[in-house]
Protein 1
Amino acid sequence: MDEGKSLQGMIESFLFIAGDEGLTIKQLTTVTEQNEANVRQALAGLLENYDGQVERGITLKQFGGSYRLVTKAEFADS
């Protein structure tokens, strides 16, 4: 499996578990045992995947210093 995709999957899982609290870059580097550059690259890849697939109901958002998985606006009222 591609290491970048594997890191994206790990981050996605941790963000799902974190729920509304989300996780900071520092927290993500700690739990994934990756450096900040790798974590930022994986987050960018996740965002590209979520926003590039219109059928996906979730996306990645940054609120203050933490990242969260959230419902896309177009599905929020569904």
Protein 2
Amino acid sequence: MGVFKLIYILNRSYGPVQALTTIGRGGYKVHITIATWGSRGDVQPYVGLARYLIQNNHQARIITSLDFEAFVTNSGIE
């Protein structure tokens, strides 16, 4: 799938999580890297998003501060 088609799907009327799940059902596997910084409250929602994507057969990883390395890796995310 081309980048432009992915951007088109993400810009439809439904949210990005639903769009990525729809892509996965179509036989495409999304590889996504999430970069976040700040407090645990800033990182935690992205951990949930990454876990959701992994459960739907996508590959997700998070880039964040070393302070949250244990939190992210204990959640099953690289």
Protein 3
Amino acid sequence: MPEKSKVPPLTLKEVAPQLGLSATFVRNLCVKQLIRHSRFGTSEAKSVYRFRQEWVDEYVAAAEVPVQQGGQQNGKAKK
């Protein structure tokens, strides 16, 4: 049986500022299944979303853009 987290889950309104996004944008990420979440409710419009901090951290890590090596930008060498 999985270990239960003693940290309460985060709400949509708590996660949005962490990501620097609006609650509407984060809700859309949930609807499109682009961020891990738990959903409680029978319809998208009336659902309540909850997040674990590690899920938010995973989303941020996955969105990271690596720095290009060798001074190249868009496949072109800098002049």
